Please model this.
Amino acid sequence: MFRKLKGPVLFLLMFLDVQIIVGSTPICVHGHTGCQALSLADLFDRVIQHSARVHGLSSDLHSDFDQYFLPSKINRNCHTSYILTPNGKENAQRLAGEDLAGVILKLLLAWRDPLSQFHRSMAQHEDFTSFSGNKALEMSDMVQQLRLGVERVAETMHLLGMISNSVRGLISKEALGSQASGSEARSMTDQQLLYCFRRDSHKIQIYLKILKCRIAPEQGC
Model:
């Protein structure tokens, strides 16, 4: 009997195993004959569901944090402020699909190291339960898995001619900015990091939904 895979692990394996075939041939897992077609809309559904779990986990951790630590005034200046994000849903809808995909990937890349930092910090708090500390680790892992999934979606869009830039083209210029923001993130408090990530994860979820509506408007968008 096979052991049931947990959601984040299954999500990661699914995206690592997807093979993209351009043209009229369906996109299939493993490329096996008779496999179930995995359309771009299906890929979007999966990353959107995963992003919802990430945002939900950040909200749970926020509640845990409020329970174990005294509230304090939060500096709302986030280390991702150098990334130009559309203000509000209407402005995001006006942004070109390629630019919106780039914003999503840049935000996910910018959180790679700060979330690891947040987990290490939580592990040092004796009053913070091990259960909540595990949530912090899970959130860090899930964001990396989400980034891999979004990269797969972006590469598929590139191969299908929907965007002109590859993933490397979308985020290559962001590497230096990400490194520069690292020192700023290290100086942020745990509460500030959690506030900023909760805000950015909500943006990512909204942007992914808008991007999906660009390629599959017939699905009730």
User: Anything to note?
Assistant: Residues 27 and 38 are 5 Å apart (CA to CA). DSSP finds nine helices and two strands in the chain. Residues 1-27 have pLDDT under 50 and may be disordered.
